[in-house]
Amino acid sequence: MPEQPRSERKTQNRVIALFTAKARADWLGYHYLGEWNTRDHNRPVEAALLRANLTARGYTPAHISAALQKLEAAADSTGVTLYQANLRTYQLLRYGVPVQIAAGQAHETVHLIDWEQPEKNDFAVAEEVTLKGGYERRPDIVLYINGLAIAVIELKRSSVELADGVRQLITNQEEIFNKGFFSTVQLALAGSDSQGLRYGTIGTPEQFYVEWKDEDRNVPASGAAPAAGALLDRPLAQLCNKTRLLDLIRNFIIYDAGQKKVPRPHQFFAVKAAEERIAKLEGGVIWHTQGSGKSIVMVLVAKWLLEHDADARILVLTDRDELDKQIEGVMKNAGVIGAESPSPRITSRAEFVEKLGAATPRLLCALIHKFDVADLKGEPPPVRGRFYVFVDECHRTQGGDMNKQMKRWL
Fold it and tell me: Are 356 and 346 in contact (CB under 8 A)?
């Protein structure tokens, strides 16, 4: 009798088909690069694939060579931490590579990823990608965008704890294994047919790998058996959809004082809901429990607003000094404001009035007590720019004189 394939191999075949099989209704549109278990020199930057995509997008050989040189230097993790190499690389992915072709010429930007037109990018998948270096490892699946290793997926059979896959992802990033390969990686995923999908990024501790909650409302009724592979395939399809994946990488990655972070599902969907409300010029309330990551949501919405609305200014209101300090720290760590920029915290009512009427800074943090309700009949101060107000502990400001004063001023 022919040998039956292992259960995890069946899962892997089905997942590869999800990404690459045009016959599937839920095909994700990636092309198949093959099994790379015996291929030499598997690297995070597949230069030939990147060259081909950049050429197709109209860049000259000189621009491509200069961009590749800078990218490969940034991705080299020799002598630096993985966090540092990954941050350097991410800056080039996110904002493009500035290149100068000849002395005296202006710098031009080579965009490694076309964020605005997903169809201009080359989405691909390889399996059994042998990584050499320290000790050899072989991730089950690697996703590539324009030849850049973006996501690593470890699959486990249903009888094995999914935590084993998470630990495998984490140890692969160590110096003695394959640290250098992860300099371009944005998502690390572990999945099985029985336990679904967990995800994190480089450096994510095991306890912070979280489940991608299925957003598909057309799930089987309670007690009904899901379709084969649905626990894994549906969240994979949602997370790795081309437009969603680009959005996650572009707008939801945070480097926070030595720790790279990706949003949990509730944070991602809160930000997307906020974007929809903002587009309709409406406000809203995001309900948080303690420890659910509201500071991260504020950072993500602030980054998005400041980039997409040239007139945007942001005022973050809290009711406690320690919260004010905490939010300033998170905003600086995440790059919303420069590390050397003046503090955005407002220290007096006079300073508040002055900065509301100035064009800068674009981000302000203040305690709600700066809205003095003693002068409800006085003239409100002039306000420059389009202010988006983030109110923490908003029960303090949704009614009464404090609410009236905020509405008068803003």
Answer: no
Q: What are phi and psi of 390, to 5 degrees?
A: -100, 115
Phi, psi of 258 (to 5 degrees): 95, -5
**Whole-number pLDDT of residue 409:** 86
Distance, in Å, from the CA atom of 75 to the CA atom of 72, rounded to the nearest integer, reads: 5
C-alpha–C-alpha distance, residues 253 and 297, integer Å: 12
pLDDT of residue 1: 42
> Burial of 216 by CB count in 10 Å (0-12 exposed, 13-18 middle, 19+ buried)?
exposed
Q: What is the pTM of this model?
A: 0.90
pLDDT band at 105 (very low <50, low <70, confident <90, very high): confident
User: Residue 127: how many CB atoms within 10 A of its CB?
Assistant: 22
- Backbone Cα Rg of the chain: 24
What tokens does 147 get?
């030849």
Beta strands 254-256 and 259-261, pairing class: antiparallel
**Amino acid identity at 189:** L
Q: Are strands 141-145 and 148-156 parallel, antiparallel or unpaired?
A: antiparallel
At a CB cut-off of 8 Å and minimum separation 6, what does 37 contact? 128, 129, 130, 138
Q: What is the pLDDT of residue 332?
A: 81
Contact 199, 239 (CB under 8 A): yes
Q: Which of 43-47, 137-141, 217-221, 351-355 has the lowest mean pLDDT?
A: 217-221
- Strand-pair category, 312-318 with 363-367: parallel
Strand, helix or coil at 190? strand
Contacts of residue 89, defined as CB under 8 A and 6 or more positions apart, other chains included, come to 71, 74, 75, 183, 184
Element (H, E) at 187: strand 187-192
Helices 242-251 and 294-308, packing angle to 10 deg: 100
Q: Where are the alpha helices (DSSP H) in 114-229?
A: 162-172
Q: Where are the beta strands (DSSP E) in 84-177?
A: 97-99, 108-110, 123-127, 141-145, 148-156
Closest by Cα among 193, 292, 262 to 233: 193
